[in-house]
Amino acid sequence: MSSQSKRRQCIGYGFVAFAAGVIILYIGLFWNPQDAEQEAINTAWHEFAHEVAELTTTVQRAPFNQDDQTAADGYRHAARLLSTFLADATDFSDPNYPQFTRFPNAVARIGWDNPDNLYLSFRVRGDHEYRLRGNVRNFDLVTFVVYNGVIGRKPVWKLRTISRLASPDLDVDADGNFALTLSAEPQHGNWLPLTPEASVVIVRRIVSDWELTDPGVWEVVNLTTLGRGAPRATPESIMAGLQGAAEHARSLRTLLTIGHRLVFQLRLSPNEMSDPVASNTDFPMSEPFQAVSRGYFKLESDEALIVEVPVADCAYTGFQLANPWMESPDYGSHQTSLNHATVHVDADQRIRYVVSEQDPGTPNWIDTAGYKEGSLFARWSYCSEDPSAITSRVVQVADLPDLVPTDTPRVSPEERARIIASRQLALSRRYAGGL
Questions:
Q1: Is the peptide bond prior to 104 cis by the omega test (within 30 degrees of 0)?
Q2: Does the global pTM surpass 0.85?
Q3: Across the beta sheet with 277-278, what order do the strands follow?
């Protein structure tokens, strides 16, 4: 054998040895055979991923999804819901060791979420006792409602309100602090009943003055488990949570699509507002202390919708719009909402909201934020009497100066910029602690 052949043979042996060494090293470092239980978890993860992929169909089939911008908004909306539900399912869903979640929040928005509302929620079980502490000083109204489930995770016809309480009925100290007990057995002082089917508590903290960004100290504890360490999450509970989060996002989005289609596009004529109707406590996740009025806007760029509403004696009133996905637009950078503290009341004691894409220079402008259509939602909370005689009409933006009272003040572009800046700064302070 020639010396050249020997060199080639040595190189071949060396390559084989090197490859074998790499394979052995890889097996030693990374080979990880799965047992039957691990394979079951792997399968559950694949099912979770499939459920996430199914969100595509949910967004795609929405009847109002008619252009690329709406589609993009829909996928962003679905992603927001999924991220929030994943955090809830994997970290905040244990009623034995409850933690506050802020949903809706600055990112995940749903079902006409109120820009004036600092939402809190936590999980409960009916056979445990809980203590909730907080402060109501800087809020117009705080309500506490116990439900037997959440929309999207339980059939809507099975959802019920268990119990409810509002801040005017709370015993608070001179600084606005309170302590509230939640339990099946009646308690002295502030008490909210629980039943065996109790599942979640939603706290709605309404603030009309966005400069009041100090919510005080809030705390919730399960007195039944207080002082005992939480057990490690089981593989089954983790995978069930992931699967449930994806199913929740898809089913909720489907319900909202149906709701927008039936309640607005088919039931209501465009550009009109219904008279206020008191919330039905049997309606899924309703707020029992308010009356609501709904509308559906569809406007061209040069059109405006004037909605006239009488002044009402309420703890809180608010008017807002939502996009077709039923989430509030960017209410920091756009004046898409107003409340009783920020609205202008005309001399005849009527409020005239102007919904339009263009800034009409009126104080009660509701900016459509670039949306050609969407829904309108008005709230009247804890009122002595709900308002009536609501009217609406479509006009040309150019004709507005002749259609509003002569004493209606004008808002200059510079003043509008200052208003928007104050909203942006207030929201930055509101969510400085995160979502």
A1: yes
A2: yes
A3: 277-278, 290-298, 373-383, 314-322, 337-339
